[in-house]
Amino acid sequence: MNVHLLNDLIWRMAEELGVRHGYTLIDNDEGMLTLRKQEGVRVTYLFLLPLYYGDTPEAQQELIRSQLQESVDWMKTFGRRKSALVHRKIHLYIRTSPGLQTPLEELAKLSVSSVTEQYRAEAWVADPGLHRLFASDTRVTGSEALERILAEPIPAEYELGALNAAIERRHYAIVRAHEERLRRPREEIAGRRKGSPVTFALTGINVAVWLLMTAYGGSDNPETLVRFGAKYNPYIDRGEYWRWITPIFLHIGGLHLWFNLTALLSLGGRLERGIGSLRFALFYLLAGIAGNIASYTFSPSISAGASGAIFGLMGVLLVLSIMDPDLWGESGGMAIWGGLGMNVVLGFIVPGIDNYAHFGGLAAGAAAGWVYVTLQRAKTAAR
To answer: Are 8 and 50 a contacting pair, CB within 8 Å?
Structure first.
């Protein structure tokens, strides 16, 4: 494959990724293109370039490893302002010569990453002659489309002027698609730009309600709790079903409030930025309601607190880390497991903790996370 057909192939891949799969073209270095796409907390870069050969297989591997290391260093530099994100850069090397040094399957296993796996660069290889893509197990949006392009035959003849004109059209199409995405009002993009508005709004509401309760008899006073809407089974039995919602915003004492808000601010920001503010608010409320229904079903005690909703956030994050570890990070999942285990132990040791609300919220959050990932996969498959 000569340089002209190589450029045509690279731009066909870039057009597919940019127009149909939401990538942004961020660099064009003499035909070596870099595209970027953010999904939730993951940022994926695709670097399209020709396959390099060295004097020996070892030299070739060392050259590619050095390029991967440069990419990890580059991501560390440009990713500092968004430390909550997970960065992946795929070097998609396109084989242009029939000569082989390192087997392509082995090249596709090369990778370099930071200690925490927050920054990772991998080598993939596209072989137009074999019509194959040699890749790792990392999930990358648009990889199936790249395989379809590689399955197409290499033109036996071509006209250089027509190829160059096609490249110009593809470049324009990528830029136009990006501009259209910027103009499109999307709630998830707006949520990321504004940070975590729902998380901070919930924090403010909980503090305000606690201050009101403190002023009107004390937040640990049973009469005040019932008056403000705590879960109280006799009143729910007579039809006050709104008491499955209001306890989410009540807390029994300042320590209870502090623990829950610390957890909310710790978990909420990342999850809200990843799935969008509207979904986050919906999952939070559903988990809180489910927790209160579980508490009503199995416990006659007065109860209040955002703990069921907080456990619901843990459930969502656990499922996301299990079903999509590349996007949400296995290390994040382990941290959630640790926090969840500690809270479960405390629930059985410390008296007065409503474990039914905790487990009800956890189950609802896990179910919501499963539905979310399943729908996202179906949407991706339908593209």
So the answer is: no
In the block, which residue shows the tokens 């919930």? 202
Q: Name the phi and psi angles at 121, rounded to 5.
A: -120, 135
Among the listed residues 48, 21, 4, the one whose alpha carbon sits nearest the alpha carbon of residue 155: 4
Percent of the chain with pLDDT over 90: 54
Cβ–Cβ contacts within 10 Å for residue 190, how many? 13
Coil, helix or strand at residue 224: helix
Interatomic CA distance for residues 374 and 196, integer angstroms: 24
The candidate with the shortest Cα–Cα distance to 316, out of 35, 39, 62, 324, is 324
For the chain, which residues make up each domain, given as ranges? 3-184, 190-382
Q: How far apart are alpha carbons 78 and 113 in whole angstroms?
A: 15
In angstroms, what CA-CA distances link 268 with 198, 307, 370? Answer: 9, 13, 18
| Long-range contacts of the stretch 169-172 (C-beta < 8 A, 24+) | 170/11, 170/12, 170/14, 170/15, 171/11, 171/25, 171/28
DSSP per position, 284-302: HHHHHHHHHHHHHHH--S-
Question: Quick one: pLDDT at residue 190?
Answer: 45
Assign 3-class secondary structure to 67-124: HHHHHHHHHHHHCHHHCCCEEEEEEEEECCCCCCCCCHHHHCCCEEECCCCCEEEEEE
| Cα–Cα nearest to 37, from 186, 178, 183 | 178
Active site residues: 307, 358
pLDDT digit string, tens, across residues 251-265? 999 999 999 999 999
- Do residues 250 and 219 lie in contact, with contact meaning Cβ atoms separated by under 8 Å? yes
Query: Is 284:198 a contact under the CB 8 Å cutoff?
Result: yes
The CATH code for residues 190-382 is 1.20.1540.10
- Interval 155-181: pLDDT, tens: 878 888 998 999 999 999 999 988 887
Specify which residues 44 forms β-bridges with.
Answer: 37, 88
User: Cβ distance 38 to 178 under 8 Å?
Assistant: no
